[in-house]
């Protein structure tokens, strides 16, 4: 029997077995879901933590934020740094920390439950040498490059924020004034054909140089943009942040990465129980998802213009139509979906919407 037949036979067997019995997980999440802690204790930039709760599947896929908590950073010298809540479930502030100390995170929820992380050593993150990119048949690939001459970092993590400018296929000359029902020429200051879109990384980006003689990371892929994508139609920018991790922190994130991003076929690694360094003091057996690290953060921003990446991206309206004089209710023709491009009032019509 060939390897292909073995694989096909195995798939058929698994399919015939897997559809008969319902799997019931032995792990029971609390009614409010597990607490998820995402963030980094930073000694040179803004410390920010996002708190949320896991959700059941199937069901609502949006994790509810943990609002109204009291969150603080604690030093091994008994110093305390409160993190006030800004947007729902996001706690942040800026302060200077002592690199010689260790730090941890304490959380007290609005329901009186207390969570505490282990003390984390303060790690100095080396500068980013460069954020480079290549343009090929598969699109633009953005890379991070760094090194630590002291060979003391070894474990790295990145995340990013991006923004890009794009434009609609047409230029709208007129706008509708809802207060008096009139149509007026749209000044350049009120043009709506140029837009900007923002996004942040959602993947876990970690790697290590432990198998290398020198602590060097070269061409680690941070982001891929498909060819002729709207992101590169005018101007694209990405801000990359780099973090130094401990070995335990790296191992936790690597396991999290495998559990969340590498599943889907019978050949993928099976899910593993994830144990972070944050614990519930109110319910010691409760699982908490997250890892708290501390140190400095380095960053670098780059820009990629359309002239830098020859692009065939073209955006145009799907159709051009005419608004006839009989359509007296102009308000219905000035919506999110439809907006007159240019007009000819002498002939009694607005063209292109």
How would you describe this protein?
There is one protein chain. The protein is mainly beta. The chain is 9% helix and 39% strand. The protein is built from 2 helices and 24 strands. The strands form 5 sheets. Strands 1, 2, 3, 4, 5, 6, 7, 8, 18, 19 and 20 form an 11-stranded mixed beta sheet that branches. Strands 11, 14, 15, 17 and 21 form a 5-stranded antiparallel beta sheet that branches. Strands 9-10-16 form a 3-stranded antiparallel beta sheet, with no helix packed on it. Mean pLDDT is 83; it is low at 1-20 and 346-353.
Features:
globular, 24 strands, disordered N terminus, 11-stranded mixed sheet, 353 residues, 39% strand
In total, the number of strands is 24
The radius of gyration over CA amounts to 27 Å
Largest β-sheet summary = 11 strands, mixed
- Low-confidence stretches at least 5 residues in length (pLDDT < 50)? 1-20, 346-353
**SSE-based structural type:** mainly beta
- What's the overall average pLDDT, rounded? 83
* DSSP strand content: 35-45%
Categorize the overall geometry.
Answer: globular
Helix content: under 10%
Distance between the termini: 63 Å
Strand/helix succession: HEEEEEEEEEEEEEEEEEHEEEEEEE
Helix run count: 2
Which helices and strands, and how do they pair?
Elements: H1 3-18, E1 35-42, E2 47-53, E3 70-75, E4 80-83, E5 90-93, E6 102-108, E7 114-117, E8 120-123, E9 128-136, E10 139-147, E11 155-167, E12 174-177, E13 182-185, E14 194-200, E15 205-208, E16 216-225, E17 235-244, H2 247-261, E18 278-280, E19 288-290, E20 294-295, E21 297-305, E22 322-323, E23 342-344, E24 349-351
Parallel strand pairs: 1-19, 1-20, 8-20
Antiparallel strand pairs: 1-2, 2-5, 3-4, 3-6, 6-7, 6-8, 7-18, 9-10, 10-16, 11-14, 11-15, 11-17, 12-13, 17-21, 22-24, 23-24
């Amino acid at each position: 029997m060939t390897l292909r037949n073995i694989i096909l036979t195995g798939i058929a067997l698994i399919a015939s077995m897997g559809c008969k019995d319902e799997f019931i997980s032995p792990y029971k999440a609390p009614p409010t879901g597990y607490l998820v802690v995402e963030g980094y204790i930073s000694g040179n930039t803004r410390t920010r933590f996002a708190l949320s709760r896991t959700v059941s599947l199937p069901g609502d896929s949006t994790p509810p934020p943990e609002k109204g908590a009291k969150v603080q950073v604690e030093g091994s010298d008994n110093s305390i740094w409160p993190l006030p809540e800004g947007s729902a479930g996001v706690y942040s502030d800026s302060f200077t920390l002592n690199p010689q100390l260790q730090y941890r995170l304490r959380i007290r929820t609005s329901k009186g439950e207390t969570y505490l992380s282990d003390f984390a050593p303060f790690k100095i993150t080396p500068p980013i040498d460069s954020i480079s990119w290549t343009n090929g048949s598969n699109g633009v690939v953005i890379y991070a490059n760094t090194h630590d001459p002291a060979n003391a970092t070894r474990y790295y993590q990145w995340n990013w924020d991006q923004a890009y400018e794009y434009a609609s296929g047409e230029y709208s000359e007129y706008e509708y004034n809802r207060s008096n029902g009139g149509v007026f020429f749209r000044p350049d200051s009120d043009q709506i054909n140029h837009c900007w879109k923002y996004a942040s990384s959602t993947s876990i980006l970690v790697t290590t140089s432990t198998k290398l003689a020198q602590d060097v990371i070269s061409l680690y892929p941070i982001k891929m943009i498909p060819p002729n994508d709207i992101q590169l139609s005018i101007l694209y920018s990405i801000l990359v942040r780099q973090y130094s991790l401990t070995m335990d922190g790296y191992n936790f994130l690597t396991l999290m990465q495998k559990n969340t991003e590498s599943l889907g076929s019978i050949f993928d690694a099976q899910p593993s129980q994830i144990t972070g360094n944050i614990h519930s003091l109110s319910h010691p057996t409760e699982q908490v998802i997250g890892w708290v690290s501390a140190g400095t953060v380095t960053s670098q921003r780059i820009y990629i213009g359309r002239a830098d990446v020859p692009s065939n991206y073209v955006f145009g309206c799907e159709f051009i139509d005419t608004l006839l004089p009989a359509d007296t209710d102009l308000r219905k023709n000035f919506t999110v979906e439809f907006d007159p491009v240019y007009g000819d009032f002498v002939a009694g019509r607005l063209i292109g919407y």
